C-alpha cells in the first residue's frame, strides 16, 4: 500500500466553493425533489419530497395527520437538494434551514392547488401543504480543477 494515498488518484484534487445565497435560491427554484430533515417521534429523520419554491418559501404536500405533517407543526427543519456526478466526483448541494408550518391560509392554498403547487410522485392522498420559511440558506460546489 502506498504511503501517499492521493498519488493513486488520476485527477487533481477538487476545488471547493461556497455558493452565494442568490445562487442557492436559483438552484432551489430549478429542482422539484428534495429532502426534509426533522426530529420525528423516533429521532432524526430525512424524507424525500416533491416541492416548489413560491414567494421565497419551500412548499410540499403530505398526508394530513401523518407523522411528517405532525412533525412540521412549528418546527425548525433542514431542507436539502443536490446534484452529484459520482464519476467526476463533483457536484453541488444547497441546504435551507428554516421554520416549518402547516399551511391553512385560504389564499395561499388556492395558489398552491393551482398550477404552481407541488405535484407528489407517490400514490396516496396528500392534501396537507407544508411551508418552510428559510432563515439560513447555504450551498457549496465541488469541481475538478
TrEMBL record:
InterPro entries: Pyridox_Oxase-rel, Split_barrel_FMN-bd. It holds the Pfam family Pyridox_ox_2. This is Nitroimidazol reductase NimA-like FMN-containing flavoprotein (Pyridoxamine 5'-phosphate oxidase superfamily). It comes from Kribbella orskensis.
Amino acid at each position: 500500500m502506498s504511503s501517499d494515498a492521493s498519488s493513486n488518484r488520476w485527477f487533481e484534487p477538487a476545488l471547493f466553493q461556497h455558493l452565494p445565497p442568490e445562487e442557492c435560491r436559483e438552484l432551489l427554484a430549478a429542482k422539484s425533489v428534495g429532502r426534509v430533515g426533522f426530529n420525528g417521534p423516533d429521532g432524526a429523520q430525512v424524507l424525500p419530497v416533491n416541492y416548489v419554491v413560491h414567494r421565497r418559501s419551500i412548499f410540499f404536500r403530505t398526508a394530513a395527520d401523518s407523522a411528517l405533517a405532525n412533525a412540521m407543526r412549528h418546527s425548525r427543519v433542514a431542507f436539502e437538494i443536490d446534484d452529484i456526478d459520482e464519476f467526476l466526483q463533483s457536484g453541488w448541494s444547497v441546504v435551507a434551514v428554516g421554520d416549518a408550518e402547516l399551511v391553512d391560509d385560504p389564499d395561499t392554498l388556492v395558489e398552491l392547488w393551482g398550477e404552481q403547487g407541488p405535484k407528489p410522485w407517490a400514490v396516496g392522498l396528500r392534501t396537507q401543504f407544508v411551508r418552510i420559511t428559510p432563515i439560513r440558506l447555504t450551498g457549496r460546489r465541488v469541481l475538478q480543477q
